Amino acid sequence: MDLLGSIMNSMDKPPSLTEKEKLLVKKRKQELERRQIEEKEKLKRFKERVEAKLVSHFKDPKNAMLKFDSMDQICRSIVHEAAESNGLLSYAFGSDGVDRYIRVYRKDNPPCEDELAARRRGEPWNEQIKQQLLEKRQHAKREEMQDTKRKDKKFVPNSNYKDKYAHLIGQDAALEAAKKTETNKSYGFGKNYSKAKKRQKLNNESDVPSN
């Protein structure tokens, strides 16, 4: 016999259970099985109630959404499953283990992303809030369009220079010339400036001694 075998033989065997202890273990096992069966039946009845509630509620075309009270994860999974089997959409909101609940919607009238985001943040949501948000976005869009138009607005000269000479040099050339004219005026380089330059040029020529 090897060393391990001798050690095992020298060890005391665990005491065998008495009949009373065996009976107690059997009862505990039976109690556990009974509770499991009861829990299974309870969840089955819950699923049947949920499906009946969904069918009854959404039978009316006017009903677009149904809210369930807060429940544990197992019950929520049953609601999600029942909603899917009935062709509906389901979303859970709230904190898990605290107040997490489910809302069920029709597929032809799903919640918008703004509603989902608001409810996930725990914020209220109704038609008035939805309308206010839409109006705010429309206003911002109009402002953006107006800013774009102001940026893309073409230069319009104060004078009718373009109209007077467009038939001679073309619309684009006339517009460029008008821009230069306006720029010269803004820096004091108008007609008077041109005349002064001419007089200065003549004076300089007259001051040059002839050969």
TrEMBL record:
Family annotation (PROSITE patterns): R3H (PS51061)
Keywords assigned by UniProt?
A: Coiled coil
Question: Where along the chain is composition biased (Basic and acidic residues)?
Answer: 135-150
One Pfam family linked to the record: R3H
- Identify the domain of life: Eukaryota
RNA-binding as a keyword of this entry, yes or no, is: no
Q: What does the record give under GO molecular function?
A: nucleic acid binding
Organism the protein comes from? Rhamnusium bicolor
This chain's protein is named R3H domain-containing protein
Q: Where is the R3H domain?
A: 44-108
- Ranges for the region named Disordered are 135-159, 180-211
The chain's coiled-coil residues are: 20-49
